[in-house]
C-alpha cells in the first residue's frame, strides 16, 4: 500500500482523518497519457510452469512481478526448480527439470491467493508417481472450489483428497500413473482445461478435452511452442487433444501486457470526460478480447494500432477517448472471453444510456470473492440502480454516482473497478483494502495518479 504524503489527498495518499487502511479517491479529474500495463497474469503463470517441466532453460521477459505469479514460482522452487529472482523489468530464468523431475517437497506448497496456481498445480502433480504433495493457500483460496479440477482429473486416475469431499484446500495429491481420457467439462474454464492438459502430458494415452465454449487458449499456444503434441479442433475450437510422449524444450517467452488490466484504463478512458489514453503492448489473443467486443457494442471510442505478433501471441496498442455510451447485453459464449472484466464493465454500464444486462456469469461467484455480490453491494453504495441476479445483474445506466466509503473486500479486480467508478462520481470516495490491487497490478495506484496529473 502506498505511503501517505503531506500534500493534498491523491489516489496514493489516505485522506486526513481516514483510516490507515483506506485510500482517498478524489473525484473530478480527467485522464491523459500513455500507460503500459503489467504482463499478462495467465501467460506469466504458464511460462513458469511449462518452463519448469521442460528440458533446458526458459527465459521469460515481461513476467508479471505480482503476488500470484510469485506464489507459482515459490511452489516450483520448493520442488527443486531453479527460478531466478522475479523483479520488475528483469528477465526471469527457469531451469527446467523435465516432465518427471519434481522433488517431493518437505512442506506444504503455499499457493497464496492464486487459484490459477492451485488448479494448474493439481494437474501438474497428479501424474508424479509415488510422490506426495499438499497444496494450501490463504483463507480466501481455502474457500474456493477445487472439485471442478479434481473430478475430471479423477477420471484419469488422479488421487486428490481434501476438505468437503475434495472440494476445498488443503488438498493432498498422491501421484499416480494416469490414463488418457475423453473429458467434457461442464463450464468453459481455462484453468480446468489447462490442469487436464498438464496431467495429460504424462498419461498412458491421448486425452481430449471438450468445452461448451472456447476458454482462453494460452496453454494450447504455449504447450505447442514448447514441443507438446497437441491438436485443437471442434466447433469454435472447443476440442483439444494432447498425445503424450513428446519432450518439452525450454523457450524464449515474451509476456504481453494483460488485457484484463488494460480493461480498467479502457473503461476509465471511455467514461471520464476529456480523457485520452493509450494503453501500450496489450495482448490481443482472440480468446481474451471479449471486453473489446462489448466496448464496441457500447460505442466506445477505441482504436487498435501498431498490431504485431510476439512469441505466438497477437499484440497491439489501444487508444481510447471519452464519448457517449449505450447499454450492452452479454451472456453465453462470450463470458469466458471476458469473465475477469465483468466488474469494470459493470462500472461502464452505470455510465451508459439504457439498461445493461449480464447473464451466464455465475462463475464470478467463485472468484477471489463473490464478485457479483461485491460489485452490486459497492456500486449501490455509490447510488447505482441495479439488480443482482443468480448469474449476473441488470444495471440502469445514466444514474449519477456519488462518492462513498467503499471496500475492495480483498479482491484486486473490485479494488481497481471501484477506482474507475470514483473518477465519475460526484464527491470524493475512500477505498478500504486498496492494497488488494497488488495481486495483479502492483503499480496501479501510481499509474492512476500519474495519468490524472
Would you give an account of this structure?
This protein is an alpha/beta fold and 453 residues long. It folds into 2 domains: 22-39 and 256-452, UDP-n-acetylglucosamine1-carboxyvinyl-transferase, Chain (Alpha-beta prism); 41-254, UDP-n-acetylglucosamine1-carboxyvinyl-transferase, Chain (Alpha-beta prism). It is 29% helix and 24% strand. The protein is built from 13 helices and 23 strands. It has helices spanning 41-53, 67-78, 115-125, 147-154, 163-166, 190-200, 218-226, 259-271, 290-297, 342-350, 371-381, 412-423, 444-452, and strands at 22-25, 32-36, 57-61, 82-83, 92-95, 109-110, 132-136, 159-162, 168-174, 182-184, 207-210, 229-233, 239-243, 252-254, 276-283, 301-310, 313-321, 329-330, 355-358, 385-389, 392-396, 405-407, 429-432. Strands 2-15-17-16 form a 4-stranded mixed β-sheet. A 4-stranded mixed β-sheet has the order 4-5-3-14. Helix 3 links the parallel strand 6 (109-110) and strand 7 (132-136). The radius of gyration is 22 Å and the shape is globular. The model is unreliable at 1-20 (pLDDT under 50).
Give a brief rundown of this model:
With 453 residues, the chain is α/β, with parallel strands linked by helices.
The helix content is: 25-40%
Strand tally is 23
- Please tell me what the overall shape is: globular
- What is the CATH class designation of the largest domain? Alpha Beta
What fraction of the residues are assigned to beta strands by DSSP? 15-25%
Runs in which pLDDT lies below 50 for 5 or more consecutive residues are 1-20
Number of domains: 2
Radius of gyration: 22 Å
Q: How many H/I helices?
A: 13
CATH architecture label name of the largest domain: Alpha-beta prism
Average pLDDT metric? 93
Largest sheet: 4 strands, mixed
End-to-end separation: 20 Å
Q: Which sequence of strands runs across the widest sheet?
A: 2-15-17-16
Structural class: alpha/beta
Amino acid at each position: 500500500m502506498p505511503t501517505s504524503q503531506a500534500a493534498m489527498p491523491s489516489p496514493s495518499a489516505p485522506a486526513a482523518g481516514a483510516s490507515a487502511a483506506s485510500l482517498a479517491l478524489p473525484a473530478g479529474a480527467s485522464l491523459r497519457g500513455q500507460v503500459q500495463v503489467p504482463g499478462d497474469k495467465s501467460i506469466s503463470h504458464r511460462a513458469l510452469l511449462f518452463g519448469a517441466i521442460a528440458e533446458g532453460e526458459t527465459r521469460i521477459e515481461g513476467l508479471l512481478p505480482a503476488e500470484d505469479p510469485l506464489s507459482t514460482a515459490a511452489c516450483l522452487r520448493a520442488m527443486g526448480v531453479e527460478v531466478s529472482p522475479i523483479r520488475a523489468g528483469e528477465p526471469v530464468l527457469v531451469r527446467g527439470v523435465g516432465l518427471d523431475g519434481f522433488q517431493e517437497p518437505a512442506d506444504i506448497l503455499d499457493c497464496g491467493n492464486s487459484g490459477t496456481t492451485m488448479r494448474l498445480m493439481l494437474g501438474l502433480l497428479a501424474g508424479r508417481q509415488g510422490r506426495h504433495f499438499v497444496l494450501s493457500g490463504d483463507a480466501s483460496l481455502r474457500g474456493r472450489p477445487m472439485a471442478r479440477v479434481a473430478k475430471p482429473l479423477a477420471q484419469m486416475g488422479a488421487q486428490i483428497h481434501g476438505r468437503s469431499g475434495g472440494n476445498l484446500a488443503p488438498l493432498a495429491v498422491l501421484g499416480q500413473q494416469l490414463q488418457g481420457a475423453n473429458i467434457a467439462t461442464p463450464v468453459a474454464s481455462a484453468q480446468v482445461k489447462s490442469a487436464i492438459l498438464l496431467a495429460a502430458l504424462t498419461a498412458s494415452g491421448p486425452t481430449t478435452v471438450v468445452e461448451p465454449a472456447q476458454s482462453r487458449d494460452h496453454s494450447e499456444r504455449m504447450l505447442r511452442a514448447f514441443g507438446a503434441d497437441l491438436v485443437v479442433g471442434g466447433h469454435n475450437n472447443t476440442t483439444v487433444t494432447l498425445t503424450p510422449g513428446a519432450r518439452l524444450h525450454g523457450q524464449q517467452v515474451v509476456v504481453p501486457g494483460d488485457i484484463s488490466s488494460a480493461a480498467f484504463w479502457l473503461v476509465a478512458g471511455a467514461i471520464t470526460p476529456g480523457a485520452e489514453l493509450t494503453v501500450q503492448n496489450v495482448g490481443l489473443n482472440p480468446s481474451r478480447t471479449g471486453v473489446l467486443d462489448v466496448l464496441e457494442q457500447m460505442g466506445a471510442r477505441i482504436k487498435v494500432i501498431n498490431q504485431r505478433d510476439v512469441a505466438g501471441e497477437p499484440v497491439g496498442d489501444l487508444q481510447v477517448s471519452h464519448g457517449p455510451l449505450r447499454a450492452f447485453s452479454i451472456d453465453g459464449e462470450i463470458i469466458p472471453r471476458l469473465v475477469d472484466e465483468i466488474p469494470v464493465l459493470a462500472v461502464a454500464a452505470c455510465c451508459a444510456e439504457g439498461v445493461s444486462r449480464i447473464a451466464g456469469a455465475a462463475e464470478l461467484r467463485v472468484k477471489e470473492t463473490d464478485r457479483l455480490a461485491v460489485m452490486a453491494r459497492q456500486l449501490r453504495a455509490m447510488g447505482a440502480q441495479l439488480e443482482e441476479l443468480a448469474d449476473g445483474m441488470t444495471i440502469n445506466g445514466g444514474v449519477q454516482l456519488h462518492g462513498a466509503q467503499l471496500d475492495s473486500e480483498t479482491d484486486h479486480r473490485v479494488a481497481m473497478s471501484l477506482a474507475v467508478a470514483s473518477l465519475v462520481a460526484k464527491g470524493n470516495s475512500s477505498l478500504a483494502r486498496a492494497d488488494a490491487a497488488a495481486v495483479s497490478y502492483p503499480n496501479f495506484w501510481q499509474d492512476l495518479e500519474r495519468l490524472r496529473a
